[in-house]
Each structure stands twice: as structure tokens, then as C-alpha cells.
Amino acid sequence: MSDALAKFKAGMPKEVIDAMKQEFKDNYDTNKDGTVSCAELAKLMDCPEEEAQRIITGVDVNCDGRMQFDEFLLYMEGSTKVDLYSSDEIKKMFDDLDKDGNGRISPDELSKGVGEISTKLVECMANKLIQEADKDGDGHVNMEEFFDTLVAKLPLRKDFGMTEKLLERFKKCFHEDFDKNGDGSLTTLEMGQLLNRNLPGRYSEEQINKMISRVDLNDDGRVQFGEFLMHAQNLSKDDIKNQFMAIDKDKNGKISPEEMVTGIKEIYACMVDSEVAKLIKEVDRDDSGCVDIREFRRLLLVLIPFMN
């Protein structure tokens, strides 16, 4: 718990804290794991998960995507994590980022001017990727999990620029235009229709099978969405294996959280710039491409955990 949050809690009467702790246990923490997830809050409040996530983000001091009890206190008091800091402290944070002193934080200042923020962003992204891919719950990612999940998550070619918008376009193309039977994969026939749509007969069935084999990570003779992305980026399953091995530094067949952090820094550095650009876009009300002191308070909802 941050010093600022500890100070906030210390200023509350003990009987109030005890009452809220009981409320937290009885009505919010439904699975009794000591935290409130986005799904738990959405169900409790009967609201969309996007709204629940907005609430959690506002008090998520440790940036774990969940609401701890001390963060719950903030929420119940109608405060956010930004309210933990004085105006002078916020101004100092802004000035520390505003390297050229022009009253605005540029994307370059945010991504390059503060190494510790970039490092924390990478760590958060790496931990999130590990959680999404780790199907067996061992805290690591093996090659099968890497194939199944991270092919669609990581920018496997640094020169390709897989933006969120482009990824959504590929998903729509895959599911609406080519996966005709809606089973989540492309057969030889469906792949042939995709490849031959402009020039019928250009590719033979044998050629199409070779193309499928080139990206068929699980060797089922079909093309799943992640493999479809590989085809779009002109990548083969050998390329993916090489990517996995490049991240797996100790060559034990599993990627640890620490290895994922190093791997992103070395191979997927563009993810940091993409994340920074997304942060600025979310708070940039005047479309200047930068963040002024008024917009900075909204940016702090995300940055505070990285600045403590």
C-alpha cells in the first residue's frame, strides 16, 4: 500500500474502517479472495463491465486490475487515487515529465523521458500477457500456450505495426468473411476461397495445403485466428518457435514473468510506444497530441502506480 493511501486510511475512524471491512467481505468480495474483480463489481452494481473497470481504475493504486480493501475505502469515500495527492505534488509530477517546460507532456516525453514509467508499463504488460496465456496456472508460458494465445497479442514483426484497430479489422475479416461455418478455423476450402477470391484458380489445393502447413502450429490441418494473423504477416511456425526461444533465455521450455519483461524490452519495444499513445489519446480532450496540466489529472489515474 502506498504511503499516500496509508495516510488516507489513517485519517478515518476505526469504527468506520471496521464497518466498511464487513461490508467489503459480505457484499463485494463474493469469491472471498480478498479483492473485488471487474466481473464481481459489474454483477453487484448491475452495470456493464466497462463501467466497473472505470470505477476500479479510479482507485487501483497498485495497478493490478482489482479492488483491494484499502482501495475500496477510497471508492466508498467518493475519492479516486488522484485525490491522495496535493495540488503541489501533482504539479511536481507534471513538471518532472514536462522536460522542455512548455506546459505540455508530449508522447516522446512520456515514453522516453521517464524510464521508470516505461519499465513499469512493460512489467504490467508482461504480467498481463502471462496471465492471459497461462492456461495451466503455473505462472509461466510454455510453447503451446505461447502459440495458443500470444500469437494474436504480440507484434511478431516489428515492421508490421499491428495496431488495435488493425487487429479488430483482421478479426472481423476472419470471422465474418472467411470462417463460413463459424467453427473458429479455416478449412482448405475456406482458405482457398480467401486466396483465390480475386484470381480464381490461382492457387491449387496442394499449394493451399502447403500454406496451411506453414502456419499450422497445432498440426490440425486448419487455420485458427492466430495462425491467420501469421499468414497475414508472412510468418511461419518456425518464426514463432524462434520468437519463443528468443524470449526463453534459460531454455527450459517456459517463459517466466521476468523473461517476458526482458523479451518485450528487447523484441517488442513498440508495445510501450503503443501503450503510451493510447494513454495520451484517452485524456487528450483538445486533440493536441499532448497533455496539459488540466488533462494531467486524468492521466494520473493510470500513471500514479508507476510514479510511486
The global form is globular
Counted beta strands: 4
Q: Look at the helices and sheets and give the structural class.
A: mainly alpha
Could you say what the CATH architecture of the largest domain is? Orthogonal Bundle
Helix-strand pattern = HHHHHHHHEHHEHHEHHEHHH
Give the count of structural domains: 2
- Radius of gyration, taken over Cα atoms and rounded to an integer in Å: 23 Å
Please state the average pLDDT score.
83
Summarize the main sheet. Answer: 2 strands, antiparallel
Q: Per CATH, what is the topology of the largest domain?
A: Recoverin, domain 1
- CATH homologous superfamily classification of the largest domain: EF-hand
What is the count of helical runs?
Answer: 17
Cα(first) to Cα(last) distance is 10 Å
Features:
globular, Recoverin, domain 1, single chain, two-stranded antiparallel ribbon, mainly alpha, 308 residues, 4 strands
Overview of the molecule:
The protein has 308 residues and is mainly α. The chain has helices spanning 3-10, 14-28, 38-45, 49-59, 69-76, 87-97, 107-112, 115-133, 143-149, 164-178, 188-195, 205-215, 225-232, 237-247, 257-267, 270-283, 293-307, and strands at 141-142, 185-186, 223-224, 254-255. The strands form two sheets. It has a two-stranded antiparallel ribbon. A two-stranded antiparallel ribbon has the order 2-3.
